[in-house]
Amino acid sequence: MPQIFTASADTRLRAIALILAAGILGGGMFIGGYMNSTYTTRIGWVQNQPVPFSHEHHVGGLGIDCRYCHTAVETSARAGLPPTHICMTCHSQIWTGAPALEPVRQSLASDKPLEWNRVARVPDYVFFNHSIHINRGVPCVECHGRVDQMPLMMQAKPFQMQWCLDCHRDPAPHLRPPDQVTRLDWTQWEADKDHEVYGKLMVKAFGIEPKHLDSCNICHR
Amino acid sequence: MTQQVSPGAHGSSLNRYAAITGEITQIPISFPQRRNWWIAFAFALTLLLIFFVSAIVVFWNGVGVWGINIPVNWGLAISNYIWWLGIGHAGTLISAMLLLMNEHWRNALNRFAEAMTLFAVVCAGLYPILHLGRFWYFYWMAPYPNTMNIWPQFKSPLTWDFFAVLTYLIVSVLFWYIGVIPDLAATRDRTQKRRQQVFYGLFALGWRGSARHWARWQQAYRLTAAIAVPLVVSVHSEVSLLFAAGPIPGWNSTVFPPYFVLGAAFSGFAVVSMIATVLRYAFDLEDLVTARHLDLLGKLLLASGLMTSYGYISEVFFTLYSGVQHDVLTLQHRLGGTYAWSYWGAVICNFVPLQLLWWHNIRTNPLPLFLIGLSVTVGMWCERYMLLVTALYKDYLVSSWGEYHASFWEWSLYIGTLGVFLVPFLLFVRFLPMISSFEIKEALYEEEERGRDA
Fold this sequence. Notes:
The complex is a heterodimer of chains A (221) and B (454).
Chain A: H1 9-36, H2 38-41, H3 55-61, H4 66-69, H5 84-91, H6 102-110, H7 130-135, H8 140-144, H9 161-169, H10 187-191, H11 198-206, H12 210-213, H13 216-219
Helix pairs in contact in A: 5-6
Chain B: H1 11-29, H2 34-61, H3 76-100, H4 110-131, H5 157-190, H6 194-203, H7 211-244, H8 256-282, H9 291-322, H10 325-336, H11 340-351, H12 360-363, H13 366-392, H14 408-431, H15 437-453
């Protein structure tokens, strides 16, 4: 009876098995890397905007407080994007003819708000409330990064659930005095050893209970 | 290659061995029942199509197209899941447990019983995923490193359900495949067609039947059997905890794990009996699946049935003995409520025709055995339905009582899973040696040796 398979059949079968195993392993690792890559998390990726607004200039350079534009951040779930009128408090006086600001003037004239593209995005099944975080002293920089160093706005932190939970399960090190919540540079504060107990004391003072903070329905309702 | 027939005392038995292998391997090589097989296969494909349509409807619209709602939020999907998984148990029991106990009569039944297990577990495993609603997140049940920083709730039976079914599936596939390798090689050696030679040769993994091959094979087979044996008991125990761990009257009972395991074996033996009688009739295998095998299957069916009935009796007894008001009320709803048909259907279909199996004549007669198997299969389906629905539809709060009626898409999905079972099973019957020829020969040889020694 003639042979059914050639002498190399075993080798080929083993090679296929090896390739399959490597493919499964490699595929798993690729997915793992993909999920944590900045391509997925959007860290450092600049969004197109109708006006090239520079936080570096307005916050870092001019020292305008976050709340001057994001007016609702202390009282509502959303921080709020500024209406065109807020831009025009200054830009009706300075840079009135700048070509870059043409969409702002258009917006004012036509009474249509500027259509900014969202940078910091949480999924629709997450109920994030700015006001509670601000009022308990989670500083803006904790989630949005050093916006005073961003010429164009980009995401600074991976908005993944594990990142949310890291803080919810151990909030103390992330708390700062609520009256300084918009401060962006905390290096001096962190260098001061007296401040080490601050977070723990505030957790106690505010009655924050980490074991309730990671309940599903805190964020998913 | 056929066995060399040597002259002498062993000549006739060697001939007989070759004939057994020939009889079994000849079925996939030149299939005898082509027409009937195609009719059955077309029917099965239709059922499979119904499955796909029903699944797409559920995926597209969500589980709202089913009749489930509060208070009965587990409907046909879960009761069918348990039913299918239970059916699978007999295959493992016959194959693994009886192998390690050296019960050689199992050798005529194990191959198709294992195939049945495999495809029944697939049907069962599909249901929880279909029931998820957001089925594309099914992998969340697995503990894998994720960006959410959460793990499955290891205290929940639902998590262990996932592990149980997956383990069961993997071990069943391995056990079944290891067992079929020598027969694939025998089929490869006996076929003349190039395509079949390549097909069987590929999956026989270069089996040449050397002593070393056999020694390794024995090791692997027995080891896998040893892994599979605990699964016979553990998987359906775990499934029963989905119910028993909940504080629901009618579920919260310590008898559930053994009750479920025995019920599973019972329904499985019923389906094995049905398959055995059909296959031996369709392919003239009366000399391999003998009257003795039917007799033993009948006895197993009877024994496991009586043990299952113990579960029924103890449930009623302990409810009345405890006297807990709501437990007694649930019992009343079972025996006389809206779903009394499922309770009495289970009792009657499971245990009344079963009593015929006390007679030897009935046990060895294929037709009654088939019909009793069918009745038990229906009865066990009623039981799963009854356990699920009657405990939920009238909960503690009278204000939230409600009824459950399966919708069209639930029924069609159930009918569809019959196709999910039948299509691969018919392919198995068509293309693989459906009885383990070498294990039958082994049993035969040992019997003869024993006869010679005596």
